[in-house]
Automatic annotation (TrEMBL):
It comes from Anopheles maculatus. This is AsmA domain-containing protein. It comes from the Eukaryota.
Amino acid sequence: MKFIGKLLLTLLLLAVLAVVLLYVLGQTRWAAGWMSRWISNNSEYRLSVEKITHSWSKPGQITLEGVTLAQANQPQALAAKQVDLAFSLRQITEPRYFSSVTLRDGMLNVKPQQGISLPIQADTLQLSNMALQSNDAGWQFDAQKVNAGVTPWQPTASHVLGENNQFQFSAGLMVLNGIPASQVLVQGEIKQNQLILSDFGADLAQGDLTGVASRAADGSWLVERLRLSNVRLQTPLTLEQFWD
C-alpha cells in the first residue's frame, strides 16, 4: 500500500510539473511562433503573434502581443499591439466564442473580405486607440484614435463588425467619403440589414453637426433630425452624389 501511495504521489507531482512547464512554455516567443505557423498552415488566414501572456490577476483572460492577421493573398485585416481574449463558459461547446475581445493600438480593415469571415466571435468587441479603414464602393473612410464597443460581435464575410448588434463609436479624426471630421461620436444599432443611428455628432468644417438618422436595407436614408451649426462646407458634388 505504501508503494502504491508513493507511486500515485510521484505521478501527481509529475503531472503538476508538466502543467507548470506547459504554462511557462506557452508564454514564450517560441510557443507564439509555433501557434502562428500552425494556424497559418491549416487555415485560410495568415497569423503572426509575437508573444502570449497570462496574468493571475485576470485568470480568465490571455493577451496576445504584436498581432497581425490577413486572409491569404489579401490585404492585412488586423494589426494590433495587443489583443485581450476573455474566456466564456460558452467555449465549452463553441471554442471560438469569447466573452470579450479587445483590440488595442493598431488598425482594423473593415472592408468585407472575399467570402470569408473572421474566425472568432464574442459577446463584446472593444476597440481602444485603433484605426478603422475601408475602401469599398459604399463606404470609403479612414478613422483614427477610435474607441468603440460592439455587442454582440458576430462577424460575417460581408460585415466585419457583425450584424444585429448595438454599438458605440468615437474617433478623434475621420474622413468619410472624402469629407473630414473630428471628435466624432456615434451610437446606434444594426438590425436586419438596417443601420440605425440613434445619436451622432462631429466637429465638421469649423462647425458642428448632430442628428438622428437611419439607413434602410435598400440603401435609402431617413433623417429624423439634423442640426448644423457654423458649418462651412464646400464640395464639388451634387446633392444626389453627396448623399449617395
